[in-house]
Amino acid sequence: MNGVHDMGGMHGMGPIQPEKNEPVFHGKWEGRSFAITRAMGAWGKWNLDATRFQREQISPLDYFRMSYYERWMVALVELMLKNGMVTPAELESGKADPGMVKQHSPLTAQKVPILVSKGVPARRDVPVAASFQAGQRVRARNINPVGHTRLPRYARGRAGIVDRDHGVFLFPDTNALFLGEKPQHVYSVCFAARELWGEQAAPQDSVYLDLWDDYLEPA
Amino acid sequence: MTTTRRDFLTSAVTASGAAVTSGHAHAQDHTHDHGHDHQVVPSDPALRVTALESLLVEKGLVDRAALDALIDTYENKVGPRNGARVVAQAWSDSAFKQRLLTNSDAAIAELGYGGLQGEHMVVVENTAKVHNLVVCTLCSCYPWPVLGLPPVWYKSAAYRSRSVIDPRGVLREFGLELAADVEVRVWDSTAEVRYLVLPERPAGTEKMNEAELAALVTRDAMVGVAKVASPQEGGPA
How far is Cα B127 from Cα B200, in angstroms, rounded to an integer? Predict the structure, then answer.
């Protein structure tokens, strides 16, 4: 979707403000938000792409008004409601429905080191032919899907050179909507900065994006 | 969705007698300028998250000990010291450096790192003529196993919007002025590949061992918004 999350190249966002000696979490609630989101993900009711898509659907004004982990929490609440894991009444009262059957979280403390060390790989070991190869000139398609996509607006319609083939990965556009993994090759594509931004960019500079087969066409 | 459910658990929080403060009350020590994605937030998100955790624990949907373990992992175990070890080893061992640049996952795994949000990693090398910079314009992708969780500025609208269109201006704000003939390569992490910058080894470090070298390497240098300062310049910036 052409949402405000797709920020590459926007103006007016102000200076970058690094914080000295920044803590990992600003206040306990940020850490709890981070951990609750990860723990609820372990139920397997949704996936990382669906989570990102949910955050992208936060209304633009709220997206900018909220801090990072507030967005995480709001998106998580929506995902839990959609999947019937909590009810509106429970969110109103803060108390579990008396008729609910108590569950047992799949993510226990013992399993945390396994999750952290193994991760959730998006690479798929399946034989899928590559449409492009390193060195080839390609163009990012001019598409404007209303769902989730990882093709930023600033690259659409622009031509670049395939730098390398990363291998086969699940496809976020379909995975986010639970329409299947549609595994396909992902390439690092090098775009000249001037192809993206015009003459204001330095002639030797470039931007590399990781793009799926479905985002590309020969150029 | 036409509205955003920002007010989840407001009633529960209010009913519990907790003081819900509105708007953007700030902590007393929060003195820097505003207008960015600051995360010293009003107390109501904190109260709501506490209420949500209680509800999910009551339903058995989350295990409180697992939450504690996750937080402990990223507060105390996984962070930029991991990446600094990788960099120091690459500076000290040219064979390792070659492996790191050609098969990053396997080389990083030699040091015991890998996993969540770093299942697939690529290391890019800075030289006198090439400067690499990493961003995620669409969200906040970052190589957790070697750098930990990203800082606020990395996730901010300012960094996400500007790094791709004005990388030299961004670097200037971080105090790094690149020569006109240096080539800037920006890596926008749009897929599940995570990027780590191998900074240039600074002058004056020829006699240093790996531990001493690792102590010089900063998170910012591994994202590409800084260089590693030579020890004569006073060590890590």
Answer: 6
CATH class of the structural domain A28-118: mainly alpha
Q: Which residues of A are less than 8 Å from B28 in CB distance?
A: none
- Using N-to-C axis directions, what is the helix angle for A28-41 and A48-56, rounded to 10°? 130
CB contact under 8 A, B188 and A95: no
Distance from CA of B12 to the nearest CA of A (A): 5
| Cβ atoms < 10 Å from Cβ of A23 | 12
Q: pTM of the predicted model, to two decimals?
A: 0.92
Domain A137-218 falls under CATH 2.40.40.20 = no
The kind and range of the H/E element at B12 are helix B10-15
β-strands B194-198, B121-125 pairing: parallel
Nearest-CA distance from A165 to chain B in Å? 11
Q: In chain A, which residues have their Cβ closer than 8 Å to the Cβ of B5?
A: 74, 77-78, 81
What backbone phi and psi angles, to 5 degrees, belong to A166?
-80, -10
Closest residue in chain A to residue B171, using alpha carbons only: A16
**Beta-carbon contacts of residue A189 (< 8 Å; ≥ 6 apart):** A138, A140, A160, A161, A162, A163, A208, A209, A210, A211, A216
Angstrom distance (rounded) from CA A2 to CA A28: 33
What are the residue boundaries of the structural domains of chain A, listed by start? 28-118, 137-218
Per-residue pLDDT of chain B (237 residues), as tens digits, is: 445 677 778 777 766 544 434 333 333 344 444 444 544 445 689 999 999 999 999 999 999 999 999 999 999 999 999 999 999 999 999 999 999 999 999 999 999 999 999 999 999 999 999 999 999 999 999 999 999 999 999 999 999 999 999 999 999 999 999 999 999 999 999 999 999 999 999 999 999 999 999 999 999 999 999 999 999 765 454
Please indicate whether residue B139 is annotated as part of the active site: yes
Residue A199 DSSP symbol: G
